[in-house]
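Repro:
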Amino acid sequence: MSGEKVVAQNKKARHTYQIVETFEAGIVLLGPEVKSIREGRASIAEAFAHFRDGELWIKDMHVPEYRNIGYAPHDPHRQRKLLMHRRELRKLESTLSEKGLTLIPLRLYFKEGNCKLELGLARGRRRHDKRQSIREGEAKRDMERARRRGSRGR
């Protein structure tokens, strides 16, 4: 398998937060969880990552039970361990101690057959920052429309 297959995205994250840096992490999953995620049934909208005992964990990631499971079902809301290099973890933990930063998942995807999670080191935006980014997006769209209209008339 090559390429990436995106399963879930946190669409509001880039609006709600200012993403400072992104990281890629593997996830420790059970077999039925992987099958459920492959069906595209996972949600990372409410999830966030945190450190516990020097390890990185994701909390509130919802992976519903696999439909065709024949044995012990898993807890859909359990905390799952994230896998990163020790060096990256240490750097990330020291950066997170800075006030106002949090670690949120941006997208869940399969890369070369392995389930990966893209994490964003984020700083919360204030209401006026959100309004400004909306205005900038609208201005870009208006300029693009005007450019297209202008090239059609020639």
